[in-house]
What does this fold into?
Amino acid sequence: MNRSVFFISDGTAITAETFGHSLLTQFPEMEFRQIRLPFVDSPEKAEDALAMINRAAEEDGVEPLVFNTIVDRDVGSILDRGRGHVMDMFGTFLDPMEKILGSKSSPQVGQAHGMRDKDSYEDRMEATNYALTHDDGVTQRLDDAEVILVGVSRSGKTPTCLYMALHFGVKAANYPLTDEDLEKPRLPNFLRKHRKKLYGLTIDFNRLSAIREIRRPGSKYASLRQCRFEVESAEALLRAEGVAILSTTHASVEEIASRILVELGLQRELF
Amino acid sequence: MNRSVFFISDGTAITAETFGHSLLTQFPEMEFRQIRLPFVDSPEKAEDALAMINRAAEEDGVEPLVFNTIVDRDVGSILDRGRGHVMDMFGTFLDPMEKILGSKSSPQVGQAHGMRDKDSYEDRMEATNYALTHDDGVTQRLDDAEVILVGVSRSGKTPTCLYMALHFGVKAANYPLTDEDLEKPRLPNFLRKHRKKLYGLTIDFNRLSAIREIRRPGSKYASLRQCRFEVESAEALLRAEGVAILSTTHASVEEIASRILVELGLQRELF
It folds into this structure.
């Protein structure tokens, strides 16, 4: 028996799903069927959602969980009439917040991921463009970079840079350490002069080999021997240069990006 | 008087901040000073956070709001001893969930943005690589694309593709409509044959001009006249081809990506 779980919002439902996810992972032995319903912003759409909830209750033989972040209470309360257990993620906290702040809330739909602040939006777009034009060592001009990630090919540099740009508006460049770099005792000068902005990424060499195999099966590039050489040399080089290193083997892009920004003192408000 | 707001978590605190943000926007007339404290995963770090909360209470002359998503209750409860109003975002919902599910929760730290599922992680990395290698019309081979965004230069295609890839593992390509394309009555054949995967992005021409001015000040490319020509021609062409169009003028990347995926029937579980 799998219980259905609905994430329902008048916006993207990204907040509802992200938060709901972390609650569900606290019940690791249970299986859930998860359904996201974004843009439920009218009574009609709420009625449609209600019908889906009731149908799931019927089919599953068990009542669904409903994570509701609809701001308009007249719309959101429609969900209460169904056969789901509704977690009202907004109302639950708005009531105490109104008391603490001594102020009535005024409903603002879909503001979690809306375009609240044009400057912040343009910062993110600018940073994304920066990440794309300073990816994979394409340029040695790194004066404008706020972070420069360094590591062997396929250690996770590009996605981390893009995440920092899209979510935090941070200008992140990256440089892949090649065999040639790894045979030298020092990092290239154009990196050394930005040492305070450098951050190393590493990865378990077995996993690296598996990732590279997908790209180039049977190649020297993907061989365990080559991956081990590169990872061990890169770690030694970065340590010798006093560059902090983080392993991406068991971490998500979000975690890696957040940790690096904290450690480099680049804390930004999330968009 | 600005009230301090803390987002505190044992993980990235991205969930706490995203959710807390949407609650704060319901009080649009108030100003807040927002502080994110990620990776608070020990009693010592919680004590440090507590000291920051108390200092803010002192400096602000008003008690801070504290959005707490620390999973370990022994660590999280340390925050309750301070001068902040703590919103316990986990505990508040875990208690009712335990009753509904008939199961005790077992604390799993930092799972909202952890690497839960290796396959999903690799899907996202693969999709990110796809977005990078199928950006800006660099290739006409689009058989593997799940979405192809079409629009004039700087209408928001690249960030939207990257967001779809990083968050949903969707393979998204994009193609910029050039003057040459806009003078023809039809889309190029390599796009027409993938019509079901096409989605148009448009933007208000005044805003487009402002965005392009930052890039190339005083250029024909950034002129109002050119931007208006491109936007109007692109909209006419896409309409004639029966391609759905979304305006990015007042929407965030998250909203645009979510709407397109819903409309193309590409609903994915968020990572």
